[in-house]
């Protein structure tokens, strides 16, 4: 009887210890997005996408033998380096195991250089697209799930050429993102025989853009391409151009794509067109349904890429058997690419099980993830046209 009692007590202690270990094993992911600023209408769905992946994996109970996943947010302001860096530093102090973000390219570079690299922390951005990030020294810590603007410039040039546009005026938001994208559009459009009549910067947050539009209109062009932000300067430029009767159709690169723009501009935006990172196929279809059930818009820009960023973190941790960035960073490319079983949204538990069993996975996710060195997204683009006050998908490139 005594032996049985001792045995049952020992078993209970082992079970309690295992439960305590699993409970103590908490993976924390920080989200650094511009919840205020010039893309604030996009970042709510983006954060919801990332947190849906975290919940899916946490609920499975399969990550690192029972770890839970929690999210904590910080505001980057999109264009406020000091705010983004201080927010990321707070997340590091809170003990996060990875940083999802930042969102806009300038603040992403600032967080990478001032927070991620000094702390050896992995940073995966779903939306920072500046070509300058490709060559930034990152110690193997930076990845992104949206393609570089170098590729977007080529895609936009193709679209303009296909639509018979021979000349454009080009304005860009005066920061790393805007300048890098404008350079890519200008060089790519010229390479296919197009004329760029003017390339001019604009500042965000101004009340009046009539002077900027006056200079652009004087230069002329079949189309005004606005490489800005939909919730601030980009929208201001378009409103001013429409008021002046300078243009009635606009080219809209990624930072200008979102439901807020047609909603705020109104019917006059109909016929304008552009592109944003996006894919087709079973991944995005499944994700869109999952997001709808979760109460947010899965088609909102960079929301699929945010789900994928969170998933990559956690699958890499499973592959490394560790939540330490120094150990799991080298597994991100491994879980993201072939060979292996293709993994789609809603299949993260399956992926964790396969990895635990020593099998390879090829994470496709919501945005058809394929990472190329060094941590770049190969990426595809969704072509958009504004019709009846809404952004309609008209194809992919």
Overall mean confidence score, pLDDT = 94
Which sequence of strands runs across the widest sheet?
7-6-8-9-10-15-16
Distance between the termini: 73 Å
- Tell me about the biggest sheet? 7 strands, mixed
Using DSSP, what is the number of strands? 16
Rg over CA atoms, rounded to whole Å, is 23 Å
Q: Give the CA-based shape.
A: globular
The low-confidence runs, each spanning 5 or more residues with pLDDT under 50, are 1-23
Tally of contiguous helical segments: 15
Percent helix, as a range, is 40-55%
Q: Which structural class do the helices and strands define? A: alpha/beta
Q: Topology, pairings included?
A:
Blueprint (H helix, E strand, L loop, with lengths): L1 H23 L1 E8 L6 H21 L7 E8 L5 H13 L4 E4 L3 H15 L3 E3 L6 H4 L6 E3 L4 H14 L4 E7 L2 H16 L3 E8 L7 H10 L3 E5 L5 H12 L5 E3 L7 H6 L7 E5 L4 H13 L8 H18 L4 H4 L3 H5 L4 E3 L4 H9 L4 E3 L7 E2 L3 E2 L3 E7 L2 E7 L1
Parallel strand pairs: 1-2, 1-3, 3-4, 4-5, 6-7, 6-8, 8-9, 9-10, 11-12
Antiparallel strand pairs: 10-15, 13-14, 15-16
Helix pairs in contact: 2-12, 3-4, 6-7, 8-9, 12-15
How does this structure look, described?
With about 400 residues, the protein is α/β, with parallel strands linked by helices. About 45% of the residues lie in helices and about 20% in strands. The protein contains 15 helices and 16 strands. It is globular and about 65 Å long. The N terminus is likely disordered.
